Amino acid sequence: MGKDKTTVKISLILLLILSFYILWPYASAILFAIILAYFTYPVYRWMERRTHKIIAAGNLMILVAVVIIVGIMEGLRVLMRELIKIYEILPEILVGLDSIREVEFMGYRIVDEAVESAMSRVMNYLTGLGASIPHIFFSLLIFFVGYFYFLVHGEKAYEYIKDRLPFCDDNKKRILEKVKLNVDGFIRAEILIAFAQGIVGGIIFYIFGSPYPLFFAILIGILALIPVVGPSLVYWPVGLYEILRQNYVIGIAYIVSGICIISTMDYFLRPRIMGGKAKIHPFVILLGFLGGIYAFGPAGIIIGPILLSLAIILIEEFKAECKVED
């Protein structure tokens, strides 16, 4: 009997490893579908009361698909327009960089190395993009199908996970409440603040005469998710570049407005948006942001910090339960 149990355990472990190996390429699509289903579930419930759960989930899935497709098309249109603008003024940018191209640090020409590295990465990405089209297609398919079923069977999935958590009933309830607070807090605080900073940053760049304010608005919004540095990775380089071009007033204006307006928005908006929501430590967000992008691609911007915060919650509750048992 003992040998049979050992065989079953080994078989289960092997099956789990194989299942993980099979699902990993589409982990980001599945996790993103779960997160989106969680936040759109109230809308689904409202629609379900007026139609049928299958119709409600199908309509919501179509709506999300339209929003994503329109967003991607509009994003590509804006990106191409901004890239054309950058290409048109590229000779002027290169002339402006000539004054600092000779600057060396530990034997490296910083600007030349940075430009070559950036161009190499861009070319490698564009080269690999064609080969990634099948994977992108199947990821989108899994995302939409998963999103549909997570809406329809969301409550069953919730109960399934709840029943199988290796904790007592009181701890299960507390864990799920903490999870909800952390996920809500991250989305409401980090995403909304980043969105607001991107809009304000775009307006500032437009006022100061930047030829591509929308590009910088999107860049600031994305980088605002990185704790501590965030938008400063945009307005400091742009400001210093303008100063090197002897546009001292504009360069200083970018830096001062970035510090006094864009970056300080975090301190004013966060307490009002967070309210009683749980706060994720900035270092956890940083690790989740960078590690999430590496592991899951662009979706890792959201998935990474949330997964790390959930792992911390489970570890803390496991330690607390172990203490009680001792």
Tell me the number of structural domains.
2
Using the alpha-carbon principal axes, give the shape.
globular
Low-confidence stretches: none
Distance between the termini: 31 Å
Rg, Cα atoms, Å: 24 Å
N-to-C SSE string, H for helix and E for strand = HHHHEEHHHHHHHHHH
Number of beta-strand segments: 2
Strand content: under 5%
* Tally of alpha and pi helices: 14
How do the strands of the widest beta sheet line up side by side?
Answer: 1-2
Q: Percent helix among the residues?
A: over 70%
Largest sheet: 2 strands, antiparallel
Structural class: mainly alpha
Summarize the structure.
This protein has helices at about 1-25, 25-50, 55-90, 90-95, 110-130, 135-150, 155-165, 170-205, 215-225, 230-245, 250-265, 265-275, 280-295, 300-325, and strands at about 105, 110.
Description:
20% of the residues are buried. The mean pLDDT is 76. A hairpin with a 2-residue loop joins strand 1 (104-105) and strand 2. It is built from 14 helices and two strands, in the order ααααββαααααααααα. It folds into two domains: 26-158, no CATH class; 167-326. It has a two-stranded antiparallel ribbon with strand order 1-2. It has helices spanning 2-23, 27-48, 53-88, 90-97, 110-131, 133-152, 154-164, 169-207, 213-223, 232-244, 248-263, 265-274, 282-296, 300-325; strands at residues 104-105, 108-109. By secondary structure, it is mostly helical. The radius of gyration is 24 Å and the shape is globular.
